[in-house]
Amino acid sequence: MTWTEITDDAALTALLGVPTDAARDKERSALTDVDRDWLASSPFCMVATADAQGRCDVSPKGDPAGRLVHVLDDTTLAIAERPGNRRADGYRNILANPQVGLNFLIPGRGDTLRINGRARLVSEAPFFDAMVVKDHRPLLAVIVDIETVFFHCAKALLRAQLWRPETWDPEARVPRRAVLSQRLERPDDSLEDLDAYYGPSYEERLYR
């Protein structure tokens, strides 16, 4: 079958149509009280970045609700860095290109809160004391100067049935994390050692 590629805005609009006035005009430039409530209730977000050449990365961030985001004012927020694999792909992108896109989820909700803006990295600030989780004070925070904020409708998550446990089958086709790690990342480690690494102690080490 021949592919038909869309190469300009006019062709895209002809195919998809134009947004409603409500969808077109829903962007805001500052947080409202309900945005703050959403951020305080969200334990998870995705952070999209791109390097100087436009190569993209999307990184998940998670903390207990109320600790994921520290709101500095109506146009500024901070997200803490927690112990991880130290690749720092998104952070290196921010150093080259400060534009970021954030999508905040609340478990059980289909709608999401999207925030776009410019980011910078801070290694120390007085508000770090308010971002401590399980005695872990962040070494780094991403500061986002908000340019646009708006709610995104629930259609994508409803189609995915994301919050319906009866649809979940996490190992139906994809093996458990230890098997993936041995196959793709750590072939010299035994499956027994990897199962132990990704076992209960893995969660216990989250903030170490």
Automatic annotation (TrEMBL):
Domain Pyridoxamine 5'-phosphate oxidase N-terminal span(s) in chain numbering: 32-153
Protein name per the record: Pyridoxamine 5'-phosphate oxidase family protein
Classification via PANTHER family: FAD-BINDING, PUTATIVE (AFU_ORTHOLOGUE AFUA_6G07600)-RELATED (PTHR42815)
Organism listed in the record: Nocardioides daeguensis
InterPro entries (UniProt xref): Pyridox_Oxase_FMN-dep, Pyridox_Oxase_N
Signal sequence, renumbered to the chain: none
